[in-house]
Write a structure and sequence with these properties.
homodimer; mainly alpha; elongated; DNA-binding
Chain lengths: ~200, ~200
DNA sequence: CAATATTGGACACCAGCACTATCCAAAGTC
DNA sequence: GACTTTGGATAGTGCTGGTGTCCAATATTG
């Protein structure tokens, strides 16, 4: 198929497809002449993935490129690939937290073993600092419950990873890590809404 | 104190403080002359809150304005105020999901009572659609576990809300809803990292 | 075979966002 | 009285995620 059909199939303007090709989010089609290239089913899927990562996933183009590079890279082991995918995915607050200790303490209380320079650890420290600066330092007990709930989720995320093919595993991890985030946040808000309705019953 | 001291105290450039004043994120100081205004401690706190919402909280200026308006609005009941704050906080995917049913079904399975037009419900539907489009439709069981974990968190979020003053309650809800999101996401990634290390033990 | 349409590729351009810089006259400060 | 700072207004910046326009080369159609 040609670019116009590819664009139509994924519901994306042709100009935007060209943009993604330029940005390296989409692999080039097979050239069949100076002004003709052929695209396949896999391009349609990839394009849909790109749209999902950029839109609901909330990734920037640059981050999506890094993430997709991790997806494409031939990996040797699942764990290694997961690590690469995770590292490509910072996306979290860019602020450089001054004090990692509260985050480290929380992780230690859970008994989690994580890399000392894990981006998520930095993000956690930054988020805790922001809460402090905003005048609402969260009590330890609350954080522990958050961590417990997050632990369940992370456990389950990893348990679901398919072990058949490394490539499949990586794709699975990337898609689920990114695209289940909005799901989780939306569910939290819905749960809050429900709980609020039960705790403060009135005619809104 | 004057604008320069306010800016210094919060670690923000003066030009940026002026910008926030223009944008209505920060209430104007008390004018003491044509070219002089006085700011108080509450401006420092508010400015820090604004920075936390815009930076780690990930809100846009427009969204932050809406959220802060909800914080400032004199509310009559806690539940009402929470609803207003929640509604000011969409921030979630702007895509208009075509099919709300999967999201509704998930909420119903949990027994949650939420508004049928809740922004979070739309966000959930959109996120589920994105997963589908990306070729990784999540199994129901996985979603149910996510919902269960989210339920615990939402429950706890609401349980912590102070009931003394409505204003305090609103501020608490807004700050915690927004600023605990990055905490939760970071914790999930850390839990994934830990679980991955346990499931796929090797020398990274 | 000629008229028309489409393509890949290059480049310029655009709108929105969060600031940032400059300027000004009025008002403090030393 | 010189110097600095202020609030307020306006314009400009850098970045991001696209769009629009143009081109010669190639299909496709009549």
């Amino acid at each position: 198929m040609q670019i116009s059909e590819l664009a139509r199939r994924a519901g994306v303007p042709v100009a935007t497809v060209k943009y993604y090709l330029r940005e390296g989010l989409l692999p080039p089609g097979e050239l069949t002449g100076a002004t003709r290239a052929r695209y396949g089913e896999e391009h349609v899927e990839r394009l849909r993935l790109v749209r999902a990562l950029l839109g609901p996933g909330g990734l920037s183009v640059a981050r999506a490129r890094a993430v997709l590079a991790a997806v494409d890279a031939p990996a040797t082991s699942v764990h290694q690939a997961l690590g690469a995918a995770h590292r490509a995915l910072p996306e979290m607050g860019a602020a450089v937290p001054a004090d990692l200790d509260p985050a480290r303490a929380l992780v230690r209380r859970r008994g989690w073993r994580v890399a000392p320079d894990s981006p998520a650890l930095l993000a956690l420290a930054g988020a805790l600092e922001a809460l402090h600066a905003a005048g609402s330092p969260p009590p330890e007990a609350l954080l522990d419950r958050y961590a417990e709930a997050a632990g369940r989720i992370g456990e389950q995320d990893v348990a679901e990873v398919p072990t058949g093919s490394v490539a499949d595993a990586v794709r699975f991890v990337v898609v689920n890590t990114v695209l289940l985030e909005p799901v989780l946040l939306a569910l939290r808000r819905l749960a809050q809404e429900d709980a609020s309705g039960r705790r403060f019953p009135d005619g809104d």
